[in-house]
Amino acid sequence: MSESDGPKQVSDPEYHSENHTAAQTCGWTANSLRGEGKCYKFAFYGIESHRCIQMTPVVKCNERCVFCWRDHAGHAYELGDVEWDDPAAVADASLELQKKLLSGFGGNDQVPRERFEEAMEPRHVAISLDGEPSLYPYLPELIEEFRDRDITTFLVSNGTKPEVLAECDPTQLYVSVDAPDRWTFDETVKAVEDDAWERLIDTLDVLAEKDETRTVLRTTLVDGNNMHHPEWYASMFQRADPDFIELKAYMHVGHSRGRLDRDSMPDHEDVRAFTEDVMEHMPEHDYLNDVPVSHVTLLSKTEDTWVPKLRKDSEFWERDPDAEAGD
Hints:
Structural class: alpha/beta
């Protein structure tokens, strides 16, 4: 259905949307098209930024994180009146929105024609633009829909719906762990639901049971807020037994500037030092990598952190969409 047929679910004018599906051009996508660098997800995991869609199937959220750059006023998540599109429609909308968003780069002299044509055939989707994706009732099926189209999926969740995440098997599953204890969680995340902390703990146990899906715990570090007790973070991380742990600096941008001071943004050196403190309590995660320009670090059990199918000699990159269309 089109956006005009029902209640408006996406109000942010910066997003391109179709009903409750929204997409936005990531700055790193634009940079990659112009040959000006790639997202840290390339360095860590092999994601090609110019071929990655940043989208969400729902912009509503059940948390009000102090560090979030979004406008909380638009996140009220009464969803009873939403007419949900099916997964195929959401996937179609995501692809079409991405093509519209990037169409202008086709006439940019800084963008090689071959790279632009590659961008018109996305191979990755980051389900992470806004809101909480697990509020979309067909999220597991959406991930399958993208997989059927040979598109990798990176899903980012706040962990408040463990029963949904148990059914989701994306290429890589991120869960935010933004506090090492209940009090800090309440002060930092400000969840709408009273049992959000308990459900996050349940989600850690769900991740520990994932055998095929690559799992990542991600912490946004806010100086003077949640950047303490590295040993407590390590205890939570170990409970989930993730493949990777990302610790990233809070960035003083967007609507977060009305909630936090600029001093709340740690330097990269502080992020790396805190990561090393966490690492001391996690002997299995003994490989440390970082991308200073993005103020992010990575802890891993192995030095080889790329998604196997994203290596350059993989058949994943040999797909011929024209041939597939004729099958």
